[in-house]
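Researcher: I'd like a candidate sequence for this fold, 171 residues long. If you have to choose between options at a position, lean toward the conservative one.
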């Protein structure tokens, strides 16, 4: 990790993450535990797997989370309290595929609370992480063979913040 003396030794199984080839690592200044607890509360299938805390003589505040591994809907993540060296940007976002409007509403409402709603299903949560809350119907609509229909769907989508499946389908 650039700019840091923190390292996790051993393989991913030893730190509580299922063997997954690529695990997103989310860098927080000092709110990794708070953010992870929030994310785990938002997703129905979610759990904290392992917490590594700073010990006496470590690089961080005694007892504060250094790294925390967690799972959201089967996807493994790692979060780190790495200090103020790096922040999130919208250049990287997490996309949630939603089957129903109820799912879209749930994730949008929970994740945008205290954050910043964006256009076309994008939002920034209260920790600065960008999310896309996207109905799976949008992909089907955007791949329709009728180019005029795709244009109408695109126009409708561009006018929305939280995506509305019924309005997109009617377009």
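Model: Candidate sequence:
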């Amino acid at each position: 990790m650039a700019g840091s003396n923190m390292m996790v030794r051993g393989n991913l199984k030893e730190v509580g993450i299922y063997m997954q080839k690529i695990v997103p690592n989310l860098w927080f200044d000092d709110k990794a535990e708070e953010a992870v607890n929030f994310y785990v509360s938002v997703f129905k299938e979610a759990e904290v797997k392992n917490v590594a805390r700073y010990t006496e003589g470590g690089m961080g505040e005694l007892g504060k989370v250094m790294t925390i591994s967690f799972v959201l809907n089967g996807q493994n993540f790692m979060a780190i309290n790495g200090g103020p060296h790096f922040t999130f940007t919208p250049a990287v976002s997490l996309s949630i595929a939603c089957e129903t409007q109820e799912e879209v509403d749930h994730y949008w409402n929970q994740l945008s609370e205290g954050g910043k709603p964006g256009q076309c299903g994008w939002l920034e949560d209260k920790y600065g992480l960008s999310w896309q809350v996207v109905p799976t119907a949008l992909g089907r609509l955007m791949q329709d063979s009728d180019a005029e229909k795709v244009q109408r769907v695109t126009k409708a989508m561009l006018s929305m913040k939280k995506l509305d499946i019924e309005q997109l389908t009617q377009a």
